[in-house]
Amino acid sequence: MPEFESVWSDLQGVAFEQGYLDARGVRTRYLRAGDPGKPVLIFLHGSGGHAEAYVRNLAPHAEHFSTWSVDMLGHGYTDKPGHPLEVGHYVAHLMDVLDAIGAQTASISGESLGGWVAARAAIDHPERVHRLVLNTAGGSQADSEVMQRIVTLSMAAVENPSWETVQARIKWLMADKTKDYDDIVASRQRIYRLPGFIDAMRDIMALQDPQIRARNLLGPDEYRQITAPTLVVWTSDDPTADVDEGKRIASMIPGARFELMPGCGHWPQYEDPETFNRLHLEFLLER
């Protein structure tokens, strides 16, 4: 019988807190660990995701950082603004989160949509981003097949949040399809059953619309404006883009480092936390 993987087991023994902060009027849920006096690190999840994406990364990073994993604007238990969400909306919310916790600067690590937002934040607010990690990040291309797949799986999961539809959405993220990811599925199913979440997901899916996506995409001119030291993490089995796309992103960012994690899909921080945490901390703690 395969070992049961539990979000709570991942957090057992970790001195963490779950709470809400007021980010310029937006009630924002977070998981936080680490001494508040240490440098700030913010983890940002992907489209339709939530803070639990980083349950396996809080403890190691909390040794060195005041570490926050937030439900982004319109996601999880954070307030839903009720309009289509573009990258600028997420960046503004991120800046409001930094203001709310009193952080003038922070290292930002984003996966998928979170990486897109983190990169845009580093371009628009360079003085506030100390170091940048782009983890299977979105925002560099518009693959119509991938975009349609994201919309189909995501809307199916919220319109009928059965175990099967939510599990299909989670398994799509992962390289190892033999695992059931029961606890992550249960966590996400509870979120997707929240009142009003069908409309919230439609707003989240705005960036999968070709016209909206086009005006939010990052190209060479944008990437080369990034001045923060940057790590690009990619995987062998990412369902959204191949390894060459990750390398292309890294090539456009001055001085960026590229690391490939084999045997992982879209959530390397969860599928192989030991490797991810090691690479991540080596980069963040570099002098």
**Rg calculated over all Cα atoms:** 17 Å
Q: Helix/strand-derived class?
A: alpha/beta
Number of domains: 1
Percent of residues in β-strands: 15-25%
CATH class type: Alpha Beta
Distinct helical segment count: 13
Instruction: Tell me what the CATH architecture is.
Output: 3-Layer(aba) Sandwich
Number of DSSP strand runs: 8
Order of helices and strands: HEEEHEHEHEHHHHHHEHEHH
Fold-level CATH name: Rossmann fold
Q: Characterize the overall form.
A: globular
- Biggest β-sheet strands, sense, barrel: 8 strands, mixed
Task: Find the CATH superfamily.
Answer: Alpha/Beta hydrolase fold, catalytic domain
As a percent range, the share of helical residues equals 40-55%
What number is the mean pLDDT? 97
How far the N terminus sits from the C terminus, by CA atoms, comes to 45 Å
* Low-pLDDT runs: none
Strand order of the largest sheet: 1-2-4-3-5-6-7-8
Descriptive overview:
Residues 39-273 form the AB hydrolase-1 domain. Keywords: Hydrolase. The structure is a single chain. With 287 residues, the protein is α/β, with parallel strands linked by helices. The protein has a single domain (7-285), classed as 3-Layer(aba) Sandwich (Rossmann fold), CATH 3.40.50.1820. The protein is built from 13 helices and eight strands. Strands 1-2-4-3-5-6-7-8 form an eight-stranded mixed beta sheet, sandwiched between helices. β3, α2 and β4 form a beta-alpha-beta unit. α3 packs across α4 (113-124), α5 (144-159) packs antiparallel against α6 and α6 (163-173) crosses α7 (182-192). The longest helix has 16 residues, at 144-159. The relative contact order is 0.15.
